[in-house]
Design brief:
The protein has about 325 residues and is of the alpha/beta class. The protein has one domain: Rossmann fold (3-Layer(aba) Sandwich), CATH 3.40.50.1820. Helix content is about 30%, strand content about 20%. The chain contains 9 helices and 13 strands. Strands 4-3-6-5-7-8-9-10-13-11-12 form an 11-stranded mixed beta sheet, with helices on both faces. It has a two-stranded antiparallel ribbon with strand order 1-2. A hairpin with a 2-residue loop joins strand 3 and strand 4. Helix 2 packs parallel to helix 6, helix 4 packs parallel to helix 8 and helix 6 crosses helix 7. The longest helix has 26 residues.
Length: about 325
């Protein structure tokens, strides 16, 4: 009886462990929420709109919207190959530049854009550039996935232009992406040769990314961080390590106070926003994903998120949070 009980516990623990190598497979038909939390049925085997993807590769339709403390609510539009749009704006090359990229079926007005914009501007005088890539993001999910590399490369080219016009250094740039947006900023960092100071993936999207070579990876920036909050077997997040340091709050599968996958998924940007104002979200390093799941991590500590451009760290980290802000 004791042997049977131990076996059952071992099996249950194994089933609860987030995936270390990103080899989870999804069902063909799943539901994925848009930026407003409305669920949409997705056929992961649907063919992408190749014409739209090719058009994005040829002529990026990204919008770059600048917010500063001088224009917190009304963005100024910055345009690639239009130096005047930058020099006549409130962009200050002496301040850090934060880029925020949304996920599928979203735009400049949907989270995490407003919540992160407000968190950063309340903390420091920075340039916030919201990437609106709705033309591709508003297409079918497989098309949006196929379009991510082109969108990311376009962002990288824009940041290179921004650098050439203003002298804003890459080591003061922090690229942040949520869900599909995490892979977008990864591709942008790759376009720039991994020179940006930080790249943060907020619960990087999982469906169609497990074996995708265009996914976020640790060489996309000087320091790359992943925050995983919905990495269960049917979760929306990739659930596996993608960066130099990867955080798995509450084990990385489900979050306190959440009853849905959407709530778990969104908790990534909510935790990150809280980490900008506070320094209390600190993880312990884990030797492996089994320790992450079993909550037995006792290694060195590293703070989740925050706005430190010189942040460094590596490995897997587990922390436990509360159910409501500031967590």
């Amino acid at each position: 009886m004791k042997t049977l009980l131990c076996l059952c516990l071992a099996v249950c623990t194994a089933l609860a462990v987030p995936l270390e190598n990103g080899k989870r497979e999804y069902s063909r038909f799943i539901e994925i929420p848009d930026g407003d939390g409305i669920l949409h049925s997705v056929d992961l085997e649907e063919q992408p709109d190749i014409k739209l993807v090719q058009a994005e590769l040829r002529d990026s339709n990204n919008q770059y919207l600048l917010y500063t403390r001088s224009n917190r609510l009304s963005p100024q539009t910055l345009r690639i190959n239009n130096a005047n749009s930058i020099t006549s704006s409130n962009f200050n090359a002496r301040n850090p530049t934060i880029v925020v990229a949304h996920g599928w079926l979203s735009n400049q007005n949907t989270n995490p854009n407003p919540i992160l914009r407000n968190a950063f501007l309340s903390k420091a005088d920075v340039n916030i550039i919201v990437l609106d890539w709705r033309r591709v993001a508003m297409s079918t999910y497989p098309t949006a996935v196929a379009g991510v590399p082109g969108v990311g490369r376009g962002l990288g080219q824009f940041l290179n232009f921004l650098n050439s016009v203003t002298g804003a250094p890459f080591n003061t740039m922090h690229l942040i992406g949520f869900s599909l947006g995490a892979h977008v900023v990864g591709n942008a960092g790759r376009q720039l040769g991994g020179r940006v100071a930080r790249v943060t993936g907020l619960d990087p999207a999982g469906p169609l990314w497990n074996f995708n070579s265009n996914r976020l990876r640790r060489t996309d920036g000087v320091y790359v961080e992943g925050i995983h909050t919905d990495g269960g077997t049917t979760g929306l997040g990739i659930g596996s390590a993608v960066g130099d340091a990867d955080f798995f709050p509450n084990g990385g599968n489900s979050q306190p106070g959440c009853a849905t996958s959407l709530c778990n998924h969104n908790r990534a940007f909510e935790l990150f926003a809280a980490s900008i104002a506070h320094t209390h979200l600190v993880g312990n390093q884990c030797s492996n994903m089994l320790q992450v799941s079993a909550n037995t991590c006792r290694g060195s500590t590293l703070a989740l998120g925050n706005d430190n451009l010189n942040k460094r760290g590596s490995g897997l980290y587990r922390l436990n949070t509360q159910r409501s802000y500031p967590y």
